[in-house]
Design a protein that fits this description.
Elements lengths: L8 E6 L2 E6 L10 H15 L6 E6 L10 H8 L7 H19 L5 E5 L2 E3 L1 H7 L3 E5 L3 E3 L13 H9 L1 H9 L4 E2 H6 L5 E3 L4 H13 L3 H34 L2 H11 L9
Parallel strand pairs: 2-3, 3-4, 4-6, 5-7, 6-9
Antiparallel strand pairs: 1-2, 7-8
Helix pairs in contact: 1-3, 2-10, 3-9, 4-5, 5-6
Length: 268
Amino acid sequence: MDDPVGQEVIFEQRQGIAWITLNRPAARNALSDRALQQLLEAFSRCVASPELRAVILRGTGPVFCAGGDVAFFRQLLELLPEARRDPLAHYIGLAHQAMLALARIPVPVIAAVQGAVAGVGMSLACRADFIVAEAGCRFVPAYTALGTTPDGGLSQVLPAIIGEQRALEMLMFNRSIDAAQAQQWGLVSHVAEPGWLERSVMELAEGLGAGPAVATRQLKRLVKGENLARLADHLDRELQAFTACALTAEFEEGVSAFLEKRTPVFGR
């Protein structure tokens, strides 16, 4: 087990199951540059582990993941528009490396989510093979509220799971849905009552671990392989679209409104 002191992501592996825990509860597990680097390292360890049977992705505290790092977006507003390109390329590029590593994990990945799943945190959860959500948990795209487009592959994976029309409605109107609605739409595999999330996830992981190891890995490759082959190109397009949005006054208004806890006003 990794030493949790100073770790924004904690990695543990025991009895064929890896536990990857987002560990910034005071920041609602928002993904800083450091957290993304540690996520990339944890996912890469899973890709390379031949004895692994399942992976559980979770967050400490009341919220699974609130999305991107607020401090990073505050710093972006202090820059002239053209000067935002390089910091964005680094930050989103790191997030996309982590998403690619997550997508390449050859065994089933279960996301255990509670409270809220927002922004790139939603991208992260949707890239898992199964989502177990605590009752009342909300899924919030958040991107258009910031005047930008998704990153982390959400614009690819969400339509594949819930359908193009529903995905467009969620993303364009920043519509949030709760765990029950997400289950009806096929986004969530299981809804756990409060206090039962960990047990529900363990039952699912143990059930997967009891199956035939080689067949499970081969089945995931067959089902997910085609989308994985296209993922890198899609992530590049998302980065380009996000950067184009981040140079605009609408992005400045969206981020300012978020920081000031008010509703953004676009088109002024």
